[in-house]
C-alpha cells in the first residue's frame, strides 16, 4: 500500500467470525494519525473484536487490516509491541515493585520515562509518598481500583506508543474516579492516535463510530 497517503489504521472490507457465526461483515474503518475515535455499540456488537483483530490476535476471513499501510498480518511481534499500547477493563498485577507494574520488567525503559508516565496519569505524588517510592513491592491493597486503572494507563503509555487502544477502561469505576481517569487519558492522548471503546457517553472521546451489530 502507498503509505504516504494511507490512514494510520484501515479496515478494508473486513469480515470476521470466531466460528461460522459472523461478528463483522464487510466492515470499513479509517483512522488518521493523531485522530481519536470511540467505538460504540451494544454488547456483542464486535467492539472488542475489532481491537483483537488490530492486535493481530485473529485473522479476518475476508478483507485486510492495515497499520500505517502495512498489513497487520505481515508485522512482527516486536514491531507491533512498539506501536501499540493496549488497556483492558481489568488490571493484571505482576509480581514485583511499582516500577515493575509500569515497565513489565523492560530494562530499556528509563526511570525518567517511568516518572513521566506516572506524572501524566496523576500518580506521581501517590507513588512518591510511599516509603520506598517506585521500589515499593506491590500487593493488591497498595492502591485503590481507580489507581490500579491509572497504573494500567501508565503501563500502556510508558513506551510512548503511536496507537493507544482502550477497551472500556472506566466501566468499573465510580463517577468521580471515572473523571480522574478521563483527565489522565486526555493528557496521555495528546498527539497520539487513540481508539477507545465505551458504553457510556461520559467516556466518549473524539469521533464516534457506531457499530450496529446483530439484533
Ligand atoms: P461488550 O460491549 O459486551 O464488550 P463487544 O462489542 O466488545 O461487547 P465482542 O466481545 O467483540 O463484543 O464480541 C462479539 C461477538 O463475538 C459476541 O457475540 C461474542 O459472544 C463473540 N465472541 C467474542 N469473543 C469470542 C471468542 N473468543 N470465541 C467465540 N466467540 C466470541
Ligand atoms: Mg467488549
What does this protein structure show overall?
This protein is α/β, with parallel strands linked by helices and 215 residues long. It has one domain (9-210): Rossmann fold (3-Layer(aba) Sandwich), CATH 3.40.50. 30% of the residues lie in helices and 23% in strands. The chain has seven helices and nine strands. The strands form two sheets. It has a five-stranded parallel beta sheet, with helices on both faces. The protein has a four-stranded antiparallel beta sheet with strand order 2-1-4-5, covered by helices on one side. Helix 4 (111-120) packs across helix 6 (145-157). The longest helix is centred in the C-terminal third of the chain and has 15 residues, at 175-189. The chain is globular and about 55 Å long. The mean pLDDT is 91. The protein binds adenosine-5'-triphosphate (ATP) and magnesium ion (MG). Magnesium ion binds next to helix 1.
Strand residue content: 15-25%
Low-confidence stretches: none
CATH class, anyone?
Alpha Beta
The mean pLDDT is 91
Sequence-ordered SSE layout with sheet pairings:
Elements lengths: L8 E9 L4 E10 L4 E5 L6 H8 L7 E6 L2 E2 L5 H7 E4 L10 H6 L7 H10 L3 H5 L16 H13 L5 E5 L7 H15 L3 E5 L9 E4 L5
Bound molecules: adenosine-5'-triphosphate and magnesium ion (MG).
Protein name: ABC transporter ATP-binding protein/permease
Keywords: ATP-binding, Membrane, Nucleotide-binding, Transmembrane, Transmembrane helix
Subcellular location: Cell membrane
How is this structure best summarized?
With 215 residues, the protein is an alpha/beta fold. The protein is 30% helix and 23% strand. It has one domain (9-210): P-loop containing nucleotide triphosphate hydrolases (Rossmann fold).
